Amino acid sequence: MIYVLKNKYITLSVDSDGGAMSSLVYLGEERLWQGGEFWNSRDVVIFPIIGHAGEYTAAGGAYKPKSHGVARYSEFALADITLDRLTLELNSNAVTRQTYPYDFDFLITYTLKKNTVKVTYTVRGKNGEIPFYVGGHPGLKAPDGEAVIEFEDEQEPILYPLDGGEVKLDTMKRFVANKQFFKECKTFQLGGISGDVSMHTKDGYTYTFRADCPVYAFWSNEDGGDYVCVEPWWGISYNPEHPAELSEKPFINFADENGKSFSYTLTFEKD
């Protein structure tokens, strides 16, 4: 089922199959990558694991998750909808327990306010505290798959290479994310970022993210596709150097029956 929110700036479509955004039209123009040869997705809701993960242990068992967890493969139920706000809900079930052994309620709320979309993830453990990662994966249109990524203030970020370890980078304010860049770094994972993160494209658009996430990831298929993904993560991509036990992995989150929420905003502007 496709649900639609709309105001004078943005028309947002969300698919209950996976709970992710399927269309983001700003002032009449689609700004979300619409899938194709170089990436079939448009956006991905990441929960409770990030990346193409290897086997992990949890609750006394061993599990082999699918890419980015269970949410993207699940059908969400409608919890609430108004003209500018939508909440979808996923509850643990026999299928989710095959790769994630915990009982949970997972809610996604999308809210429109002028030229901004707010995405909020809420996780509740139903039988005590549960460990998890969560995050977003929107693919935003960028001609030639190229964008300038700019930070609100100068940063001294930490790079987390996919093959392990961490590197303290020199002070930086911006960098160019293009196909050659992604051939070299694959997924660019940065920690220690404060303030807004903006993405400027050749066709005059600026996408600005605001979140309190510990890691931002930047990705595009190195071989093609007119998009760049800016991904707010409350977690980090799987790495074989990390502990096998889910509750001991870096940046892991915990939530009990009281729930815990995580949000990011995405604001659109045109030159």
Write a concise keyword list for the protein shown above:
single chain, 271 residues, mainly beta, nine-stranded antiparallel beta sheet, 1 helix, 24 strands, 3% helix, 47% strand, globular
How are the SSEs ordered, and which strands pair?
Layout lengths: L1 E5 L3 E6 L5 E6 L2 E2 L25 E3 L2 E3 L13 E5 L3 E7 L12 E10 L2 E10 L4 E3 L1 E2 L3 E3 L5 E9 L2 E2 L7 E2 L3 E6 L1 H7 L2 E4 L5 E5 L3 E7 L3 E5 L7 E8 L18 E3 L4 E11 L1
Antiparallel strand pairs: 1-2, 2-3, 3-4, 5-6, 7-8, 8-9, 9-10, 10-24, 11-23, 12-22, 13-22, 14-17, 14-19, 15-16, 15-18, 18-21, 19-20, 20-24, 21-22
- Dominant shape: globular
The run of helices and strands is EEEEEEEEEEEEEEEEEHEEEEEEE
Major sheet description = 9 strands, antiparallel
Question: How many helices does DSSP assign?
Answer: 1
Quantity of strands, as a count: 24
The overall pLDDT, averaged over residues, is 97
Strand content: over 45%
The secondary structure category is mainly beta
The unreliable regions are none
Q: Roughly what percent helix?
A: under 10%
- Our Rg estimate from Cα atoms comes to 18 Å
Walkthrough of the structure:
The protein has 271 residues and is mainly β. It is 3% helix and 47% strand. It has one helix and 24 strands. The protein has one helix at 179-185; strands spanning 2-6, 10-15, 21-26, 29-30, 56-58, 61-63, 77-81, 85-91, 104-113, 116-125, 130-132, 134-135, 139-141, 147-155, 158-159, 167-168, 172-177, 188-191, 197-201, 205-211, 215-219, 227-234, 253-255, 260-270. Strands 7-8-9-10-24-20-19-14-17 form a nine-stranded antiparallel β-sheet. Strands 12, 13, 15, 16, 18, 21 and 22 form a seven-stranded antiparallel β-sheet that branches. Strand 15 (158-159) and strand 16 form a beta hairpin.
